[in-house]
Structure formats: C-alpha cells, structure tokens
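Field log, afternoon session.

UNIT: design team B
ACTIVITY: writing a sequence onto a fixed backbone
BACKBONE:
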C-alpha cells in the first residue's frame, strides 16, 4: 500500500502578517477628549524589529481630521517616538494630547536608527508609515490628504527629506506642509556652518557619518542625497522653519540654507530665527517655547485648510 506524499509545507505562513491587516491596539484615554492607540505595528522590516506608531486621536469628530506626523530627534542614533524634547516633558496634558483636543490627529512613528541601518532606511521607514496611515485612514478617522510632517533636530531633517521626496507619490498620504525645529538640512555644508573645530567632516564617528555609512567628506554623493536642500523642487509643500539663533549643536545657518533653496524654487517658506535660543529651545523662555508650539499648530491648521497651497 502506498501512502500519498505529504503536502509541501506552506512556507508563506512563515512571512510576517501584513501590518495593514493587524488589529489596532486598544484605546487608552490619557486626557479628556483624547484617544491614544499606542504601539500599532506599521512595518516589519526584514532582519529588524517591528516598527510601531503611536496615534493621538480626537475622541469624537464629525468627520476625518487632518493628520500631523511627528518625527522624533536624537541624532538619528537614539530617541523616543513620542518625545518632543525636555522643554515639553512637564506639560499636562502633553503636547500631542493638546493637538488631539484641538481636532488634529498626531502619529508618532518609530524608524530604524543608525545602529540598525544607514540612510536611506530612515526615510524609507517614514514613507512606509505614510502609506500605512493612508491605508488605515478609515479605521483611524484621519484625512491623509491633509498631512503635515513635523520633526525636531534629526527628526526635522527626516521630516523635510520625506516631505520633499514623498509628498506627491500616489497611494499614500499627501504631505501638505512641513515643520522643522532646529534641523540639519545640508550635511555637506555643516563643516562650513559650524565654528572652527566644532564639526569634522572626516570624522567616522560623527552622527552624520553613522547616518551616511561614512564621513560626509568621504561620501559626498550620499551627503547630497541625504540633504533636504538638494531635494527642493517646484512642487515642494509649504515649510515652517524654526531655529534658535544661538544654536550650538546645529547652526541656524542650516535652516537658512533650506529657506534659501525653497525661495530659489519659487516658494515662500516661513523662517523664524529665535534670539537667545539654543538647541532643544535651551535658553528660550516658557512663553517662547509655548509660542513655537502654537505657531506649529497654527501652521498645521492652515495647511489643512488650504490643502497645502501658499
């Protein structure tokens, strides 16, 4: 008696689940009028940890709400996805809860750090996050045709780079505006902008070298590819650029460079250099910090209202 050959193993079952089909996390309510979905998986990169996103949503809304995607800083090397910086950690309710109360959804995604993968993995991850948010828009109650990217420091760099390369791609969220706080924008120009001895473009241990896979001076093509100033085109969305005039970590000249590039392409960026402010808004008054946050929220609302025109 012969026995039938065993069926081949269904190897497709070894693949990770499709993040678009995974159930969303249960909602917490960290503040009145706010739903928080913490740790939704939006991507499972091969050979890496799952990537997750926190979603701060209005508890009730008449229809889909505009979306802010916040990109955390940390020199591309570290950081927490929901951390806006030390000047905001004492806020109660926190900044993202305040935005949700005001009728704006906020997504705070992880991305691969430079200890995991070099450029362009970080912007690839953010592009995947935008596509996932677009695919889950109905479940989340968000309008991804009105999406503003916002980042601080290295996160501002990634937000700008993503806004300039992803904003018109079909089948994903439409980026209608971008906010950067004290962000590097021209990695090839950092040595020129920094005071003598502050930044060595040949240093293989610099944060920029770890991002690029080698020192900027040795990888000029990669430095240009990873610099928002070189990605500006006629279709760039509106930009709000906030930078401390006395920033000792990322020179304010970096934001000026991006503003100049945008103007050369016919845009009208809103560049604000804050006197007395260092990196992370160190040295800025509480009122000044509040003004940076309010100006950002107002810009996001304006981009939502006019669809990114202006």
């Amino acid at each position: 008696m012969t026995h039938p050959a065993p069926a081949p193993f269904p190897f497709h079952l070894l693949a990770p689940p499709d993040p678009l089909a995974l159930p969303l996390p249960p909602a917490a309510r960290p503040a009145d009028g706010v739903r928080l979905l913490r740790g939704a998986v939006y991507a499972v990169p091969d050979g890496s940890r799952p990537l997750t996103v926190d979603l701060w949503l209005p508890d009730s809304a008449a229809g889909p709400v505009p979306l802010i995607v916040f990109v955390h800083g940390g020199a591309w090397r570290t950081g927490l996805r929901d951390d806006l910086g030390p000047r905001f950690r004492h806020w109660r309710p926190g900044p993202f809860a305040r935005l949700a109360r005001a009728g704006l959804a906020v997504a705070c995604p992880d991305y691969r750090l430079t200890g995991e993968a070099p450029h362009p993995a970080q912007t690839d991850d953010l592009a995947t996050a935008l596509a996932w948010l677009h695919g889950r828009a109905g479940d989340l109650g968000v309008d991804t045709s009105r999406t503003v990217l916002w980042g601080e420091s290295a996160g501002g760099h990634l937000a700008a780079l993503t806004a300039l390369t992803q904003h018109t791609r079909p089948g994903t969220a439409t980026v209608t505006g971008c906010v950067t706080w004290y962000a590097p924008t021209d990695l090839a120009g950092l040595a020129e902008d920094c005071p003598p001895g502050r930044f060595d473009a040949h240093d293989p241990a610099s944060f920029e070298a770890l991002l690029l896979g080698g020192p900027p001076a040795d990888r000029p093509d990669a430095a240009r590819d990873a610099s928002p100033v070189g990605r500006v085109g006629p279709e760039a969305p509106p930009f709000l650029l906030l930078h401390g005039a006395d920033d000792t970590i990322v020179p304010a000249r970096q934001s000026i460079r991006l503003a100049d590039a945008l103007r050369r392409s016919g845009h009208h960026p809103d560049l604000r250099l804050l006197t007395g402010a260092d990196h992370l808004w160190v040295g800025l008054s509480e009122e000044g910090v509040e003004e940076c946050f309010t100006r950002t929220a107002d810009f996001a609302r304006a981009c939502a209202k006019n669809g990114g025109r202006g």
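LOG NOTE: The longest helix spans residues 286-306.
NEXT ACTIVITY: expression trials, pending approval
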